[in-house]
Amino acid sequence: MSAVLKEQHEEQSLSLIPVTELFAQIDFYDLTEDVVVEIEKRIKNVETVVFDVSEDGKKELKKYQSSERKLIKDINEVRKAEYTIRTESVKKSNDLLLSVLKKWDESVSKKADQFEEFESKQLDFINKVVNAALTTQRTLKNIEPKFMVAHDLSPLIKLTGTLTPGQQLTKKANDFIAQIVDKELLNQSRYHSRVMELENLCLRADINPPLTEVHLGAVFLAEDEVFRAKVNELITAEIARRVEMEMRIEKQNAIANQKKINDALAAQQAEADRIASEKAKDEETSKPVEAIKTVESLRAQAASIEQAAQYADRSADRDAELKGAANLRAEANALEKSQSEHEQAKIPGKKTVTITAQFKITVSERISVEAVINHLKSKLPDDLKAVLIGCTGY
C-alpha cells in the first residue's frame, strides 16, 4: 500500500476533521479542550504514517512534511497576528487606565496639599489676630516693655475655638490673653512697689547708694515673706560690711597719721638739734632753741595722747585724755606766743597775731575725732595751712 493510501487509511481511522473546520474551531483567546484533542490526533497520525523506502517514498515524505508544516505555520501565523492585535489593544487600554488612575491619585494628593496650604494661611492669620489682640491689651494697661514676656500662644493657634465665624476672637481666646496681660501687670506693679520699698529700707539703714534688684536676683519678685527676709539679710550684711570697712579705714588712717606725727617729730627734733648746734658754736644762749623744742614736744605729746584716746575702752577715759591733750596744746600755744613776742622785738613794725576758732560738727559715733580734724584741715587753703599752729578736738 502506498504512503498516501496508508495516510488516508489512518486519517479515516482517527476521524480527523478537515483543516478548514479545524481553523474555524480554534479560539486563540479561549482554547477549548476539543481543539487540543484534535491537534493531538493529528500528532498521533503523523507518528503512524509510513513511507516506502524508495525514491517515490522519499518524495512523498517531503511532500507530506511540507503540507503539515504549512498547516502548522498557517495556524501559528494566525495565532501571532491575533496575539499582536489583542496585545496592542490590551496595552493601550492598560496605558490609558494607568494614566487616568495616575491623574486621579495626583488630584487626590493635590487636594490634600491645597488643604495644607489653606490651613497654613488660616493659622498664620489667627496668629496675627492673637498677637494684635495681645499688643492692644498691653497698650491699654500700659505694660512696660521690660515686663512683656514671650508667652506660649500655641493653645490659641488652632482652626477651631479661637475665631468666630466673623473672624473675631472668641470670649475664651480673649480671656486667655487677658490672663497673660494681668500677670504682666501684676509683676510690673510689684516691681515698682518693691523698688520704692527697697529704697526706703536702705535710706532708713543709711545705705547709699541703695540696693537694687540686681542684688536680690529672682527673689526680687518672689512672695512678700521671701522678699523681705532676703532684703533684711542683705541690709544686715551691708551694714556689717560698711562698719568693718570704716574700722579698717580708721585703723589705716591712724597708722598713717601716727607715722606722719613720728616723721614730723623726728624732723623737728633734727631741726632743733641743728639750731642748738649752731647756737652753741656762736656761743649764744640756747634758751630760744629750748623753747622751740619745748613747744614741739608739748604738741607731739598732745597728738600722741589724742591718738591713744581714740582706742580708750570708756568714754570717760577718752574725754579725760583728750582734755589733758588740750591742756598740753594750750600750754604749747602760750609758750609759742611768748617766744613769738620775744622774736617780734627783733622785727620793727611787725607783730604776731594768734587766732583761736572752735567748730562744732555732728558725725557718726563710729568716726574718730582725728578723722574729723583731718577732714577739716583738708578744706583749708594752702596759705591757712601754712600758718596753722595746731588743731585739737574732743
What do these coordinates show?
By secondary structure, the chain is mainly alpha-helical. The chain has helices at residues 3-14, 19-25, 33-48, 55-140, 171-204, 213-216, 224-281, 287-309, 315-344, 369-379, 382-387.
Q: Based on DSSP secondary structure assignment, what is the total number of beta strands?
A: 0
Query: What characterizes the major β-sheet?
Result: none
N- and C-termini, Cα separation: 172 Å
Mean pLDDT: 78
User: Based on helices, strands and strand pairing, what is the structural class?
Assistant: mainly alpha
Helix content: over 70%
**Gyration radius over CA:** 64 Å
Topology as a string of helices (H) and strands (E): HHHHHHHHHHH
Q: Assess the beta-strand content as a share of residues.
A: under 5%
Shape descriptor reads rod-shaped
Give the uncertain stretches in residue-range form: 1-13, 286-293
Count of helical regions: 11
Quick structural summary:
The chain is mostly helical and 394 residues long.
Keywords summarizing the entry:
rod-shaped; 73% helix; mainly alpha; 394 residues; disordered N terminus; 11 helices
What are the SSEs and their pairings?
Blueprint: H1 3-14, H2 19-25, H3 33-48, H4 55-140, H5 171-204, H6 213-216, H7 224-281, H8 287-309, H9 315-344, H10 369-379, H11 382-387
